[in-house]
């Protein structure tokens, strides 16, 4: 294992989330987290107006400013080094991860289009965040044409390509702003763009390419398929997307002099190939073996696991050979809204007296509602919810779907509705777990990671709903630790990710155990959830899609009138 003289060696992991970036300094030989720092994106998420013009954005848009990502390197990394008390020269490598699918349109040298003269007012010139769902019409067409043509790659993605992913968003860009599409030289995952900024070299990571870029068995969808979508889209792969692939845990390059000045780290140290925040979290939780599903629970939840076999799982986000660790097939599924749903409810549906009580007691609104909800028996609120406020990622892969709450009465209290939303996300996870098992990919261990693991009541609800023990990652910053693990491998400190995960990862086994009585009642509620799930999500009633269409139509009328 690499050391700097006799002193311990360190690596830096940088995790790019939805609202901020976090840098963590990690000791190589045991994974100890020495210090960290967070930097919030200056422009946050632009989902209502474009910051440069204050112009309203259409529904389902979510943009970001790429310069905000560079500020994380300039601010969070030096601050993390100071917090750790670690000399920069003892750092031997850097690793990064990013939310996905988050896309950056750039010129040949990596300059984002929004930074070119005269283009800051064009919404399509900016980063399209993973949460950008406005390409659903393009995703629907991709799925329809792929099914009609019998494309062999479609079952590898559960039979449906998401509006969040590279091809749908790229097609949206072509069809809504063809001039910008022509100006764009590369359609780049943010995970790869930030590594490009660190090294001066563009390397496409195998994880994003496989899960979000429809790269299967060494090939992307062919020109014939792309032309069937739109004749002007035929050259998308070779002209905008295709690029040399870097394997996970390898070095994409070394830290440039410019990036060294930004970060305070030594120029020339290895920078690991980019990765996706959820997938990189698996080794941080010690989950490098088949059957271990890691749920990274935050604003959304991403479920990742490895297996020795390749299966077609309905509604999964993808299966990629070596997509998480080499030698195993990596699977991904997910829920588009989890913490976002809880935050939405507390922001808009809590009366002043609840907010005031929380303030008096020194609690957050979340903490107060959780405390009140935990006193209730399962089913006592008489409510059932569908967790689709941000659409459904798995297993329906449909962002035209929307949330639902059944059973409201004049006696319903805020904490009861809040609990029903917590339970709905657990039911959504159970649907994913059961779909994997039915497809021949059983989940043998469920490991929770991400910010929501701090809510002990929520974790117990998940254990009861799944009727299986819940293990919990032993780090508050799983993706950043996972990126640090990949940095250690890229720097040569370990031979592979599995070995690094065994030494640097951490997990609390069976932290939450299911209660048999509660699990039984939750199974009864879950059966009702499945009924609603299939009725509204599988064509029994397309009212959610019709309402979305009506909403878009009404907004267009308002914009024209204005």
UniProtKB/TrEMBL annotation:
InterPro entries per record: ATPase_NBD (IPR043129), Carb_kinase_FGGY (IPR000577), FGGY_C (IPR018485), FGGY_N (IPR018484), Ribulokinase (IPR005929)
Pathway: Carbohydrate degradation; L-arabinose degradation via L-ribulose; D-xylulose 5-phosphate from L-arabinose (bacterial route): step 2/3
Originating organism: Arthrobacter zhaoxinii
Catalytic activity: D-ribulose + ATP = D-ribulose 5-phosphate + ADP + H(+); L-ribulose + ATP = L-ribulose 5-phosphate + ADP + H(+)
Annotated family: Belongs to the ribulokinase family.
Gene: araB
Record EC number: 2.7.1.16
Protein name, as recorded: Ribulokinase
Any GO molecular function: ribulokinase activity
Domain Carbohydrate kinase FGGY N-terminal: from-to ranges: 10-279
Keywords from the UniProt entry: Arabinose catabolism, ATP-binding, Carbohydrate metabolism, Kinase, Nucleotide-binding, Transferase
Domain Carbohydrate kinase FGGY C-terminal, first and last residues per copy: 294-491
HAMAP family: Ribulokinase
